[in-house]
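Module 6 notes. Inverse folding takes a fixed backbone as the condition and produces residue identities as the prediction. Think of it as a translation problem where the source language is geometry and the target language is the twenty amino acids. Below is one complete input and output pair. Work through it position by position during the lab.
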């Protein structure tokens, strides 16, 4: 058969693969089914590093043409190139958002691949911090007799693109990175796991009190115990001392709800009371809140504290609002604590 005819056949194979059109009966079953796996050159790359991904086939039998469908988070890995050392003809990688399609066929009257073979080497640039999952979702194959098969695959490989900071999940919180880093190095805040801070997670009422007591180095006689706070927990002592200092109060049932998410206005109230306990507070007029468009929904018990924190520059609103009823996340709490720490140092 002439070279032109074989080239036409190769192109037809690749077109049929990428169009998802079967053109022959399924391949004959073999004793060992083919296995497709992923591996990477570096499981802990830094931003800017090149990551090489190897896609390997094992227990292959007469693999003449193949299409590999690879899923990847394109916000974290930027495709550089995809190459195969298998002799033949390839279509350039086709990427659509988080999906990459790789297709290759052998050329001429030759048998397909048997045994184990690295099918593709794919290079990416690490462009964003955080956890990454690579996944082969589907492989389509054609043997030298033109029998085709489609295999649903669930081959995964997970790794982390390292941040130059203590935590790998702060990429969407650039405005809070310096505060979180400084507080973590000072031992005031901790991560939720190794190299994870969970900045978007809500902060609990108990955890915020712990941060306040730790930042202002407040200690005192324990107040009345809350009915919903168990003895021996990491926040038990801090809550007891905070109650003794009139920083926290119980509700009508003597509960504090320590694991509930804290609202922005309650966070400000507790901060104001902690400043009073440290003899660092001041009085101010509610007129400082005139620039915000949601002052009317601030609770009566909180409006004075909100005004004081705005006056001190410890809190800033956003989108022309204070958003008092929204819960605070860990990044927002870290920013307030860092501002509080800076204010305290100025007063000394």
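Target side of the pair, the amino acids:
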């Amino acid at each position: 058969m002439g070279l032109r005819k074989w080239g036409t056949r190769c192109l037809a194979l690749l077109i049929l693969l990428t169009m998802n059109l079967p053109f022959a009966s399924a391949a004959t079953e073999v004793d060992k089914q083919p296995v497709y796996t992923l591996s990477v050159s570096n499981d802990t790359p830094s931003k800017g590093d090149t990551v090489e991904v190897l896609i390997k086939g094992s227990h292959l039998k007469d693999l003449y043409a193949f299409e590999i469908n690879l899923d990847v988070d394109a916000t974290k890995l930027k495709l550089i190139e995809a190459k195969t050392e298998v002799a033949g003809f390839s279509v350039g990688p086709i990427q659509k958002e988080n999906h990459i399609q790789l297709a290759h066929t052998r050329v001429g009257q030759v048998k397909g691949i048997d045994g184990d073979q690295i099918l593709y080497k794919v290079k990416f640039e690490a462009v964003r911090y955080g956890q990454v999952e690579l996944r082969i979702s589907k492989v389509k194959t054609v043997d030298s007799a033109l029998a085709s098969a489609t295999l649903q695959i669930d081959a995964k490989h997970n790794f982390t693109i390292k941040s130059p900071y203590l935590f790998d999940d702060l990429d969407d919180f650039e405005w809070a990175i310096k505060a979180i880093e400084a507080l973590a190095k000072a031992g005031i805040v901790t991560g939720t796991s190794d190299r994870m801070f969970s900045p978007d997670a809500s902060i609990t009422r108990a955890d915020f009190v712990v941060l306040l007591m730790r930042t202002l180095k407040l200690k005192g006689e324990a107040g009345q115990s809350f009915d919903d706070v168990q003895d021996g927990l990491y926040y038990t002592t801090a809550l007891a001392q905070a109650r003794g200092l009139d920083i926290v109060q119980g509700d009508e049932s003597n509960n504090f709800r320590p694991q509930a998410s804290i609202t922005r206005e309650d966070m400000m109230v507790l901060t104001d009371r902690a400043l009073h306990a440290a003899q660092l507070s001041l009085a101010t007029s509610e007129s400082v809140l005139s620039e915000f468009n949601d002052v009317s929904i601030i609770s009566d018990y909180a409006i004075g504290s909100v005004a004081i924190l705005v006056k001190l520059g410890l809190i800033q609103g956003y989108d022309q609002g204070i958003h008092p009823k929204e819960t605070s996340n860990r990044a927002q709490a870290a920013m307030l604590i860092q501002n509080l720490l800076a204010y305290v140092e100025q007063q000394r």
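Reference fact for the lab report: Residues 1-7, 20-30 have pLDDT under 50 and may be disordered.
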